[in-house]
Prior knowledge:
By secondary structure, the chain is of the alpha/beta class. The protein has two domains: 7-269, TIM Barrel; 320-400, Orthogonal Bundle (Arc Repressor Mutant, subunit A). The protein is built from 15 helices and 16 strands. It has helices at residues 33-56, 80-93, 113-121, 136-141, 148-161, 179-191, 209-215, 229-245, 264-271, 303-308, 320-331, 340-346, 349-364, 379-383, 385-392, and strands at 7-14, 59-60, 64-72, 96-106, 126-132, 165-172, 196-201, 249-252, 255-257, 275-278, 283-288, 294-298, 316-317, 338-339, 368-371, 374-377. The chain has a nine-stranded mixed beta sheet with strand order 8-9-7-6-5-4-3-1-10, with helices on both faces. Helix 6 links the parallel strand 6 and strand 7. Helix 1 (33-56) runs parallel beside helix 2 (80-93) and helix 2 (80-93) packs parallel to helix 3. The radius of gyration is 21 Å and the shape is globular.
Amino acid sequence: MRSHDATLGLYVSVPFCRQKCTFCNFASDAFPPARMAAYVDRLVAEIEASREFAAQHRLEVPPRVDSVFLGGGTPSLLEPEQMARVFAALHRAYPMEQDAEITVEAAPGQISDALLEILLRSGVNRISLGVQSFVDAESRAVGRTHTGDACLAELERLRAAGIRNLNVDLIAGLPHQTAASWSHSLQTAIGSDVEHVSVYMLEVDEDSRLGRELIGPGVRYGAHAAPTDSLVADLYAHACETLGAAGLAQYEISNFARGGCASRHNLKYWKRDAYFGFGLDAHSMLRAQADSRASRFANGDALDPYIAGSEVVEVEHIDMLGEWEESIFLGLRLVEGVSIAELQQSFPAAWVDALVERVQNLQRDGLMRLEDGRAMLTQRGRIVSSSIFGELLADEPAVA
């Protein structure tokens, strides 16, 4: 199995939104201030007790923290003093490397001057803005309150304040979206000189308002105006080509970055490096002290039990088959793919040989390729990655 991780990522879930987007099915919502205050109290307590939790379950905690990510929800909705408390707890429990990447997700127009000052003092050096679209009609259709001009103004303000690493999220497949409007959002993002762009193909869950309407059907949330699946695939392909030509190289299915600006924290997920998550519905992956196998655990997604601290968190130790499956479906999200030699070092030869044979079959279909000892998806393959992962892992390999 792989050697111990040298660095640790920290993830903090802040599940508050000013208004819930119609396509969202995350454990987030609009909550009153009293609930936010109680949540921060519980969050700080969880961070302070986290090392003891790891010790009780005989889990390794890498000594060096090189990435922190506050996600949500909309973490920028925290009051400045609440944000300061969270960061103070993190810094007390986990001393960070001087060059640690510290990211906060935010909604355009929702970072007050006082909050921005706290973020800078806390070491935040990367901000990810949930733009989704620079076209106002598309934003309004899914419950976003900002305008394209406001997003650009926010990016300029953050850069002037000293944030040198900025990401914008864009979604392909929003109601009313067309090839022309999508091209406008892409060109606007490129023109803003951001260091990183995340592009997501809209996946509508039946638990979201938009998803229920698609099943319904209905017209309130714009389901009738959503692009077809084939158009969404075309929009994604256009994004890959356009962003790449502008110097934002694709390094993962949904992520594009200028040189040296790939998200250090998110790479931990795809490379199966260690990360510790805190807050509602936060997930963690550490390694067992005994054998370094991956061990996963997660908080629940219901706010009241989390605040009460009444849930019991179960730790799952991943067996060899689980490690194999994760190595494939997470590693293949990266444009560089997975190393056949590294798989051979960790897993039975018969498993690797069977995988290579399936990759060769998919290569003939133009969905995968083998290059320099690595298996990777093609651009066409990335569009249908979920079905490819299912095909690669369709049969459970025999354990010798």
